[in-house]
């Protein structure tokens, strides 16, 4: 298989997976069938495109292939003729755009995939199930990727996904967009989806690429749509601001060899000033609404980093205070760890190390690679090199991305006297 064909299939998966699955789910009402037929369409592309050439509109080709596969499966299963005619009549959308009929959809949601996010985020499902199901169905993340995002095992996450689909079927949860007045109750789930989607793109949990820009770009695009849809929801604006402020630093996170550059060592001239300015402006507008929330607080933290002219000018006491505020909204071990980092930078590495040791002693974040990584960094800053080296080795055993592993190996060499 040529490199061009593989690249085309990979690009089509990133761009078209959610749209194809959303269309098939809407039409067939069968979540598993939609995913199965979409997968078959991509497998077919890998077989046919090397011989027939890459089509001019890969998305339309894949949608047609998935539709035809659905027709075959439904015919074999002897599904009612009306349903079969409905699927057969479905035409692949030539360009991105809404598929739901405007005459029956009164939600005001202008994007097909965003509509499906709201549909997945039904209040009858747990928040975790809503997020996981949408990431799997719309973003095409693997079960393993979703499991890492939730700090869960892959078998456990697979069972949760199955249960979520079964609940939709058995509870008779309708596959439809809720009316506009019901959208706010589903907003937290949608925001959670967008944030995890962005994070998987900004800091991939596994593989050769630390940054998967397409996922982050899709999350930002959908967040913009949602912000236009719900202009009076400050947490929506807060999330968009948070994404923009993080994304602005993307170009400085890796060097030419693809190796990780830490925040304090990044070339700030490579940061996207326009994106930072937009993020700060959106955040300020959200804060003026007077209803603070966790995304706004996280955006404020990101703004502290993004607006500091140098690493030495970072307002770490303010960041530590903001993390203390964030703990009021999100009293989670991950936030506690980030708070420990900020305290260590504001008050010295020993103060941070004490908080990290307390987290470890409590058994929190066991198996989470950033816990020993943070401990290793504080130990290195304190000059306790043998202990730091041991912590870096522990981190290496838990880290899955190649770029992070190369960075950790360099730190290990420094602290073990091999540099």
Give me the secondary-structure topology.
Layout: H1 3-28, H2 31-52, H3 58-76, H4 81-88, H5 112-120, H6 127-137, H7 143-149, H8 154-170, H9 183-202, H10 213-229, H11 234-247, H12 273-287, H13 294-307, H14 316-329, H15 333-347, H16 349-361, H17 370-381, H18 385-398, H19 402-415
Helix pairs in contact: 1-2, 1-3, 2-3, 3-4, 6-8, 6-9, 7-8, 9-10, 9-11, 10-11, 11-12, 11-13, 12-13, 13-14, 14-15, 15-16, 16-17, 17-18, 18-19
TL;DR?
With 419 residues, the protein is mostly helical. It has helices spanning 3-28, 31-52, 58-76, 81-88, 112-120, 127-137, 143-149, 154-170, 183-202, 213-229, 234-247, 273-287, 294-307, 316-329, 333-347, 349-361, 370-381, 385-398, 402-415. Among the domains are: 1-94, Rna Polymerase Sigma Factor, Chain: A (Orthogonal Bundle); 332-419, Alpha Horseshoe (Serine Threonine Protein Phosphatase 5, Tetratricopeptide repeat).
